[in-house]
Structures are given as C-alpha cells and as structure tokens.
Amino acid sequence: MNFACGVDINASREKVIALFDNPNNMKHWQDGFVSFKNISGEKGTVGSESIITYNIKNREIELIETVVVRDLPREFTGNYVFKEGANSMRNLFKEITPQKTRYTAEVNYYEINSFIMKLMSWFFPGIFKKQVQKWMNQFKDFVEKHPD
Description:
Layout: E1 2-9, H1 13-20, E2 33-40, E3 49-56, E4 59-71, E5 75-82, E6 85-97, E7 100-112, H2 115-123, H3 126-145
Antiparallel strand pairs: 1-7, 2-3, 3-4, 4-5, 5-6, 6-7
C-alpha cells in the first residue's frame, strides 16, 4: 500500500528542518508519542536504529526506526518495523519561497502481519493516509506557532 501526503508550511526550510530533526519535538505533533530512544549507531545517521514508542488507545506500540537516507535539508527516509508490519516513509522538504516550505511524505507499507491491519488496508486504506496527513498538519501548526 503506497500513498503520499503533503503540506505547505509558512516558514523557512531551515526552521522546518531544525524542528523536524529534533526527536524531542515529536510530542508536539504526533498524538500518543511517548519516547524516542537511540539503540544503535549515531542518532539520526544512516543505518542508526531507534525505538519510537506510542500509546494509542491505551495500547503501547513500539516501532524500530532505521535511518535509510539522511540528506537534509532535502530528504529524510526511514524504515519502521513494528509488530503488525513494516513501512518506509520518505520525507521531502522543498523550498517554495524563502518563507514557505513544501513538506511531502511518501509512505509504503511493504509488510502487514496483522489480520486486522490487512482488513483495514483492503477496506479502509484512507485511514492510514488520514493519520499521516493529520500529523503533518499538526507539524505545520507547531512550526508556524514556534518562535524563531
């Protein structure tokens, strides 16, 4: 299952990247975010791995993030493995003007292990896209309200 989402942020690409690249900020736009813990390699570098923990509907979910591409300010791509499956997410940042940045996310769910997730991906694929778009919109709000 593949899809893309996007949002235009009224801020410089430098500001967008500075806020995106700090895991401590994830709590400001990702509902249910609990923690980010580096487990191998230098945090944020290609090949490094981290555990990202969420609490969603009173259920703890852990994802193992492996950094695949780190070419900031242009691109950050990670693979995410979790109990129910695995996906990749390619985050692209394009300067539209000096004070406007287009943030695009290309998501590919390449493994789905859970029967419930398979059903959701077949019958309600929009749910996955809707969640990513929601977090991107919340990131836009966070960036635009964050002082320079």
